[in-house]
């Protein structure tokens, strides 16, 4: 008898209530990239019939968090990942289902080396939000840190 371990997306869905609230889907989670989808849901539309800015922010931040956990999950016993600041640009009107693609902005080994040296490293995660036709509707940069546990 074999036991199947939950995927990172399944674990994050179970542990982050907002992910469940917005029905976000984890399509891909690796140590360098995460892809999440926000389904088209009228309850989360804005005044022009697309996803609300708050829903898109949550989608992008959740994608960034997934790649951070993918890259630094093995460091959780000694440091907690925290977002420090975020900047979001809205480029085109989003309609329908939107997808966030998050990519780690620095090599994980470089960030861990800073942690090993006793500093509190900061690193960017770049997120692109795209509609079904592939057009980029938004972009977000989130600066994360690994705060050493006391």
From TrEMBL:
Under the heading InterPro entries, the entry gives: DUF4442 (IPR027961), HotDog_dom_sf (IPR029069)
Q: Which Gene3D superfamilies match?
A: Hotdog Thioesterase (3.10.129.10)
Instruction: State the superkingdom.
Output: Bacteria
Q: Which residues form a coiled coil?
A: none
Q: Where are the transmembrane segments?
A: none
The record, for Pfam families, names:
DUF4442 (PF14539)
- Signal peptide interval: none
Q: Spell out the protein name for this chain.
A: DUF4442 domain-containing protein
Source species, please? Actinacidiphila acididurans
């Amino acid at each position: 008898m074999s036991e199947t371990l939950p995927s990172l997306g399944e674990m994050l869905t179970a542990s982050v209530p907002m992910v469940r609230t917005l029905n976000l889907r984890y399509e891909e989670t690796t140590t360098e990239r995460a892809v999440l989808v926000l389904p088209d849901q009228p309850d989360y539309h804005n005044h022009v019939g697309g996803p609300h800015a708050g829903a898109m922010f949550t989608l992008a931040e959740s994608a960034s968090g997934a790649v951070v956990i993918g890259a630094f999950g093995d460091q959780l016993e000694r440091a907690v990942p925290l977002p420090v600041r975020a900047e979001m640009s809205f480029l085109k009107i989003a309609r329908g289902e939107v997808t966030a693609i998050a990519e780690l902005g620095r090599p994980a080994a470089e960030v861990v080396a800073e942690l090993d040296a006793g500093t509190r490293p900061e690193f960017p995660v770049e997120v692109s939000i795209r509609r079904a036709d592939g057009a980029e509707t938004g972009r977000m940069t989130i600066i994360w840190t690994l705060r050493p546990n006391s």
